[in-house]
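Justification of computing resources. Each target in the renewal requires a structure prediction run like the one illustrated here; the chain below, 312 residues long, is used simply to show the kind of job we budget for.
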Amino acid sequence: MKPSKRIIIRDVTLREGLDVPHVDFSMEQKRRIAGLLEQAKVPEIEVIAPGKVFEDIPFAKKVKEDGLQIKTSGLVYAFSPRCREEVAELCGCVTRFDLLMPLSRERRPYAKDTKRDLLLDLLHYSLQRETEVGVGFPHSTQGEMEFLLEMSQESVKKGAKRIVVYDTNGSADPFAIADLIRRLKAELDAPVFFHAHNDLGLATANSLAAAHAGVDGLDTTVNGLGDRAGNASLEQVVMALHLKGFSTGVGLQNLKGLSEAVEEESGVEVSRLAPVVGEYVSMHKSPGHRESPELFEAFDPSLVGLQRKIRG
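Resulting structure tokens:
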């Protein structure tokens, strides 16, 4: 039997979640969520937001002090006036970090040559500090494919350990994402990660398409918590990958508890209709379901600690 491909899950709840209106995790709330993510065997969490590096470093240090074994990562804007200071501070605080360069012509720095030069210069500086460094490209799905490929190739040649592509405005579809990931995987000798946004309700579908196209890692958030319409839901992505024969190492039995904990800490209610962990996902009301309710379920609800219920 052919072994399933392992997809690395990098959970970004503690970064993207803070972009949700009225959500402001305290240090203790962050520590609780990080601990639960480790218990669920999520291999990596993103704890440093670009533009908030110095503000977020105390929590990164606290993760180490708490003795958590989960890998931590962060983000640095390669065009920030203080980017070298930020890189220097991050070394030793996190397992790895990614340097970000937006590919959109409408985000500064505007010129392609400037984007390239700033990114490669900071990448060279960062790699001298013996830290694992990757690069990420916001607006990957809105810019020119050839420019994304060129920037990725040059970054890998310089020593970047991974490439992260972002569907920043959530406008891509599974077909476009599959094509993009296949092209990158064919051309690059480095792991490729994908970061989805859910503005069109396609974050999970896009993440699954990326997996089928050969992606190495996916960004998720618990309950899909994140900027605007949110990000790819950890629960949905992990379950979808499991059902399609991929391995993540994340415990399915932990998904419901994680969802409830982040709902409590964030104050953002989870819909009863939410896939995988919603209250109604294992309930049956239609008379046609009563004889064989399992035929109407995408997965056995006991996998996530839910109990099948028949109504009416």
